[in-house]
Structure to design on (470 residues):
């Protein structure tokens, strides 16, 4: 089963996360820079306005400054500029400023004032003020309300931040949307790679023609797969040709040995020697037949002959076929059809593969032992055909090796066989895109054919378990 990669672990997500981090830091730095520049410009403009007002009032005689302040206050309809004169004791004499900020000093230096208390009862936050001492000892205070500047600055910074967030969301969202297609291509590459691992060397990686990195990688892998397929094909062809060419002379030798055996009816030692030669010839013919059968199954590439088949009937036929063999060896042979379902495949090939597993299980089970054939539900849409026995078992380190041609487990060297039985089962499983798995369950050796998907729901039936109690 092909599993989708987590998008959080992909290089696309990491690049997007790095881009988002750099973008956020850049936007933050830009906002800080813009705010500093705007504040500096605003303070320069206001301070110039305050210094101009200070010079303007100081240019008049001291006795006329009060009148000019009243005149300026009356004409200032916008309410941005404010003027007042205070006694040395900081008591207001004239103007629209009621109290002099405590932090103000009459040194003609502009100060930022958090709140400016006016005579109309209102307070102006964010003001700049400048105080200077007049010739008669009183204090001239000029101030400017910077509230509008601050509002404009805040609005600009908020708009800049909102624009940055929108750009970030659109950019990140766009990158994620565009990353879906490469991930789909990677999933397709992963799916094909799994089929190649299962032995289908005719598969090729998808090439879209965009000449991007994935196309380059696919081209390299396809070239490599072509070379591997050619080399493996040549090796198989040589082996198959040898097996095919030797069958005819071996069959003739087999016939001649049978004829020779009939001539030694009265000579038991020679007759026994000829019989041993016949047995060895039969072994060779069986081995070559099995080898050619494996090659035949592996070369089947078309699946048009596949159809929907019911495991209920298939496994019942196999159980009926091998029940007499199990009885003869006094082996309990159990059939469990509780989770049998309809699958898509070739009935003849699956019959041959499962029969091979059952035959091996009965052969290696001890006298009075147990063999179980059944269907196990793994999860929704996935079942396993299990063949279990309490024979010598297969060591875990040999699970992969026993599926190869001519390999025989160390525990089974004394038993007759060609070492090709599981090779045939593995070839049938690969053709159906099933998976062969070797394991153990409840003290029994279990060989399973995992069917990753079946096309019909499980058949409704009562719990059905058939056995031949010994």
């Amino acid at each position: 089963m092909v599993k989708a990669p987590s998008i959080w672990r992909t290089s696309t997500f990491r690049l997007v996360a790095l881009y988002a981090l750099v973008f956020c830091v850049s936007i933050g730095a830009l906002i800080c820079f813009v705010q500093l520049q705007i504040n500096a410009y605003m303070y320069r403009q206001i301070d110039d306005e305050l210094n101009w007002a200070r010079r303007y009032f100081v240019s008049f005689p001291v006795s006329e400054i009060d009148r000019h302040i009243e005149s300026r206050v009356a004409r200032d309809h916008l309410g941005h500029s404010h003027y007042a004169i205070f006694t040395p004791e900081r008591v207001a004499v004239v103007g629209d400023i009621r109290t002099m900020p405590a932090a103000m000093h009459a040194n003609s230096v502009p100060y930022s004032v958090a709140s400016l208390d006016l005579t109309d009862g209102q307070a102006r936050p964010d003001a700049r003020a400048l105080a200077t001492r007049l010739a008669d000892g009183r204090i001239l205070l000029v101030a400017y309300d910077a509230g509008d500047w601050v509002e404009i600055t805040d609005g600009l910074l908020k708009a800049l931040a909102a624009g940055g967030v929108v750009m970030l969301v659109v950019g990140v969202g766009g990158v994620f949307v565009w990353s879906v297609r490469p991930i789909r291509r990677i999933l397709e590459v992963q799916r094909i790679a799994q089929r190649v691992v299962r032995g289908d060397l005719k598969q090729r990686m998808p090439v879209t023609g965009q000449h991007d990195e994935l196309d380059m990688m696919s081209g390299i892998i396809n070239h490599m797969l072509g070379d591997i397929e050619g080399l493996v094909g040549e090796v198989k062809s040589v082996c198959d040709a040898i097996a095919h060419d030797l069958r005819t002379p071996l069959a003739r030798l087999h016939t001649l040995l049978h004829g020779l055996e009939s001539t030694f009816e009265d000579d038991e030692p020679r007759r026994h020697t000829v019989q041993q030669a016949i047995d060895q010839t039969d072994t060779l013919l069986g081995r070559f037949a099995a080898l050619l059968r494996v090659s035949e199954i592996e070369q089947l590439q078309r699946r048009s002959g596949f159809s929907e088949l019911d495991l209920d009937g298939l496994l019942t036929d196999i159980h009926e076929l091998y029940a007499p063999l199990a009885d003869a060896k006094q082996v309990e042979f159990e059939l469990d059809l509780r989770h049998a379902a309809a699958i898509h495949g070739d009935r003849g090939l699956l019959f041959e593969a499962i029969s091979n597993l059952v035959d091996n299980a009965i052969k290696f089970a001890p006298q009075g032992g147990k063999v179980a054939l059944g269907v196990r539900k793994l999860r929704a849409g996935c079942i396993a055909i299990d063949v279990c026995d309490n024979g010598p078992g297969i060591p875990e380190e040999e699970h992969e090796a026993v599926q190869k041609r001519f390999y025989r487990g160390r525990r089974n060297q004394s038993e007759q066989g060609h070492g090709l039985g599981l090779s045939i089962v593995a070839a049938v499983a690969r053709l159906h895109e099933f998976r062969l798995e070797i394991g153990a369950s409840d003290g029994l050796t279990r060989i399973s054919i995992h069917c990753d998907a079946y096309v019909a729901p499980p058949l409704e039936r009562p719990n059905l378990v058939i056995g031949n109690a010994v």
